[in-house]
Amino acid sequence: MDKIHVTPILRKVKNYIFTIEIFAMKKFYLLCLLAFGINALNAQKAKVYGDVTDEKGMPMYGVTVIIKGTTTGTLTDTAGKYELPFDDGTRYIEFSFLGYSPRSILVTILDQKDKKVDVQMTDSTKELEIVVVTGTKYEKKLGEQLTSMEVVKGSAIQADNSTMDEAMNKVPGVNMMGRTISIRGGSGFSDITSNRVLALQDEVPIISPENGGIIWDMVPIEELEQVEIIKGSSSSLFGSSSLDGVLNMVTVTPTPKMENKVTLDYGFYGQPDNKDWDWWWHQQIIKKNGTKVNRVKLPMFGGGTFLHRKQYGDVGVVLSGAYRQNQNYLMDAAYSLARMGAKVRYTPHKHPHLTMGLNSNFFYKSYRDFFAASDTGRGSYQSTSSPDPIVKQRTFNVDPYLNYYDDNGNRHGFKFQVFNVLYYSTTGDSTISTKYYYDYTYLHTFKKTDVILTAGTEGYYTLIRGKTFEAPVVNMNELLYFETRDEMNYAAFAQFEKKFFHKLTIAGGVRLEYAQLSGTTVTNQLPVINLLSKLMGNKKEINSPVTPLARVGINYQATEGTFIRGSIGQGFRYPAMSEKYVFTNRSGATVFPNDTLKPENGWQAEIGIKQGIKISKWMAYFDLSGFINRYHNLIEFESFTPPDSFYTNPHANIGIPFRAQNIDNARILGVEFSAMGNGKIFGVPLSFLIGYTYIDPQNMDYNPNLPLSAGSTPLLKYRTQHTAKADIQSNYKGLTVGITAFYGSFVKYIDNASAGALAVVERFRETHDKGEFVVDVRAGYTYKEKASFMFICKNVANTEYMLQPGIIDAPRNYAFQVGYNF
């Protein structure tokens, strides 16, 4: 009986024990899970942190730091510090910054222990991994570009004491015809107008509204970081005015450590070999004893610049200024100019993905407008209209912007501009114009497909008021006065880029653009649609107020340093206001309006190879390309015979008549070679940039049965078929020695210049028919990277040459430059 009662009791005890065991196990498992969770939280709190500096050990602000393959990233702060959460394991951390070579570092973290990783960034130019933004609107290595590009460092322009247009004439494939820039023969002579190269400053256009030209002296050389030059049509991304290429002038950004730089320069023009030319330099001085002495007063020039930049917490500031005076080697052509620039950038430390700022520039210049010399004798340095009209030019622009990016690969950029230009001349040929510009660019990287999308919209509205030169014309209201004219342009664009196998890049873009010029909607031909229409038997051409443009490019990295590229793109340009409506007289040449001008359009194609070489301490890029440019309705200024209806007084002396006219069909074939690099010879550092360009600029409408004076020539006028350029510099223990050389072949065809203002051109060409070869040299010393001294001699051989028709370029001249950094 006792056994019968004990058994249930034992069973109950066992049940209680089992229940307690289950409860204990649950608690144990919960404690384990809790401990695991705490460990997991601790693992997530592990971090990688450190300092990012440049080669001089200075902290770098704004460097992008990201864990490769993730969206986890940050920016360095004003002290160059960064911090990233990091799980246990091994991953690459990538560091990137514009103008510096990207770094990729393998980092391993175990047991949730923090790790400090310091990084030193290297100037990309020292490794020839030059980073540019112009070709694609985002940062990209030079070798991976789809079109030919050249990059000129701002420090090289500053050290050479060059003006901006002088500096551009030293770039392979780029020629200056006076103030007109031409890339691969795309432009002839037009004295600023008919500009087919879009000029940008920090990706915002700085094209003068009334004539579409570039005001070279307003460019803040003292602020320049680098100049990026695209050679080839970029209309699909940048629109009108980029028919032949883009010139983007990138300015410096604020630095964590304050930087101040002051430069002063002084120079003078030496005497030309032909002593008849400088007769007006001679002065008679009466000594105390009454005797008269003939002295030569050499024209002088000089000026100074300053630059200040500093990151003050979340706010970065750049201030700059320049002043110059030049007595000029040309008679009565002295000038003075001043410019000031200010940049303010705000990046809140609590929202490092957001950046906003404002850039502004002010420029003023007073000069006499020397257009053409009177002859090649005693009048070589004297104007045909001496004294020349006094011109006062003032520009002012304000450019606010906002950039934002998130962790999902989205980047938004907003840019705005108000650009005001005043051009006043004592001739009455004066204008005031204001352009209002906007740009929104969206950039997105699709992580799964590795596709980069660049899309956006941009546009501008320009208001122009002005009076052209008074002359005997029938319709005074239409031709003598601009009254108030306006221009508007709106566009949308998109470009896709995809990389395959980490070597092959393919990109394609399209743009739709609409424009009105002085109240008239601009229509443009549709070449592809018209071609298909003709094949179907339709003879009528189709025009559209909306211009579609497309571009396709490819880049294949065959080896580590070999890049093969090819591209084809459509281009177009609307006529500038000054091409269609201006009526003016300059030194005996009268420019007539032509309101029947059609927009230019065409296409450009290129194939090229860029080879990077690194041998011991030598690094270099060699580039070879072939290109073809096709133009329809190419706008060129040409002499013509105006109808009698243009004159109130048929016997009025109007000089040589010119006007902008369309050339229906033109083609330019060419090849180009360029090389850039740096290294050491016998332990002495050496850097170089050299290039050669050949073009065949065919006028496809040439009629051999017409005389050349009628405007029909077998080659497009004012084109240099062979150009060769070289810039070589050596720096050793603070010493600098450099040489620049330029060769341009004889220009075969120009306008009929046997009489009037440009007759001097024909007479000059009769004795100077072997082309132009000009050499500049420089030497200097830099003391402890603080003080610098430079001596520059330009046109060492005292060569007589003429880049702008009618104006003989400067004789040998000397400049001394002193700079100090603090």
Topology:
Elements: H1 2-44, E1 47-53, E2 64-67, E3 73-75, E4 81-85, E5 89-97, E6 100-109, E7 115-116, E8 119-120, H2 124-127, E9 131-132, E10 140-141, E11 148-153, H3 154-159, H4 164-168, E12 174-177, E13 180-183, E14 197-201, E15 204-205, E16 224-231, H5 235-238, E17 245-251, E18 259-269, E19 282-286, E20 292-296, E21 300-312, E22 315-326, E23 335-346, E24 354-368, E25 390-405, E26 410-425, E27 430-446, E28 451-467, H6 476-479, E29 481-500, E30 504-517, E31 520-521, E32 524-525, H7 527-535, E33 543-544, E34 546-559, E35 562-573, H8 577-581, E36 584-586, E37 589-592, E38 600-615, E39 618-639, E40 656-681, E41 684-699, E42 722-732, E43 735-744, H9 759-767, E44 772-783, E45 787-794, E46 813-821
Parallel strand pairs: 1-7, 1-8, 14-17, 37-40
Antiparallel strand pairs: 1-4, 2-3, 2-5, 5-6, 9-10, 11-16, 12-13, 14-15, 16-17, 18-21, 18-46, 19-20, 21-22, 22-23, 23-24, 24-25, 25-26, 26-27, 27-28, 28-29, 29-30, 30-31, 30-34, 32-33, 34-35, 35-38, 36-37, 38-39, 39-40, 40-41, 41-42, 42-43, 43-44, 44-45, 45-46
Could you walk me through the main structural features you see in this protein, from its secondary elements to its overall organization?
The protein is mainly beta and 822 residues long. 11% of the residues lie in helices and 52% in strands. It has 9 helices and 46 strands. The chain has a 22-stranded antiparallel beta barrel. It has a 5-stranded mixed β-sheet with strand order 11-16-17-14-15. A hairpin with a 2-residue loop joins β14 and β15. The chain is globular, with a radius of gyration of 32 Å. The N and C termini lie far apart (108 Å).
